[in-house]
Amino acid sequence: MKSKSDLRKELRRVRKDHVAAQPAAIKALLFNRPPAPLLDLLAENATIALYPAIGSEAPTSSYAKFFLERGHVIALPRFADENAQMEFAAFQDPFDKSDLVPGPFGLEQPDASLPVIEPDVLFVPLIGCTAKGDRLGQGGGHYDRWFAAHTGKTKVGLAWDVQVVEGLPIEAHDQQLDFIVTPTRLYGPFA
Ligand SMILES: Nc1nc2c(c(=O)[nH]1)N(C=O)[C@@H](CNc1ccc(C(=O)N[C@@H](CCC(=O)O)C(=O)O)cc1)CN2
Ligand SMILES: Nc1ncnc2c1ncn2[C@@H]1O[C@H](COP(=O)(O)OP(=O)(O)OP(=O)(O)O)[C@@H](O)[C@H]1O
């Protein structure tokens, strides 16, 4: 089996080419709102974590607006610096992003003055995944460590269909997803 780092390279390229090939008018319709069967399983008062999508990652801005209008508290990852643990704080203005500040890794994040919050449901970025819920991320281990420290959370991967692969090299610390949403499919729950 290929190494995680070779797979990251290959799948980043596949993802980039796939997204570049999508007509803008089609792309605008994708990841517009979560699939109804998934939504039915999310508590109305759940705090929902999203991520500030960059590059060719599955976009999250429509979900942010949708969940805000549905009354959920929304959270985004925050890092005190490059070496700090990932934590979450509220994302209060998904329409204008006026409350975000630049953070490490080239990502926008909530301001340091906001309290840490613990989301119940986390939508996570990924480079690759399998139809069984295995996940390959950027390699920082940020989500793996957060999930190890906060058990019982609902973990939902957002992916383009080309990111769902047959198999991934899995290590003991790798955390399984509960669901994966692609533009054409909802995978899970896997348990
Ligand atoms: N949009 C987004 N937000 C996220 C993540 C992510 O993957 N995507 N993370 C997931 O854990 C956390 C941030 N962790 C990160 C860890 C490593 C790299 C990283 O190594 N980036 C490469 C760029 C790779 C490329 O552009 O091809 C780099 O800086 O070299 C980025 C984010 C939380 N927020
Ligand atoms: N629970 C944990 N405790 C300590 N170290 C961990 C834990 N989970 C992951 N790590 C470390 O993090 C590093 C990266 O792990 P991995 O390659 O699986 O990241 P990833 O899941 O692709 O990244 P990310 O979650 O940031 O998107 C590894 O060196 C691993 O040892």
UniProtKB/TrEMBL annotation:
Its cofactor is Mg(2+). One of its GO terms (biological process) is folic acid-containing compound biosynthetic process. This is 5-formyltetrahydrofolate cyclo-ligase. Its EC number is 6.3.3.2. It comes from Parerythrobacter jejuensis. Belongs to the 5-formyltetrahydrofolate cyclo-ligase family. The keyword Cell membrane does not apply. Keywords: ATP-binding, Ligase, Magnesium, Metal-binding, Nucleotide-binding. The keyword Magnesium applies.
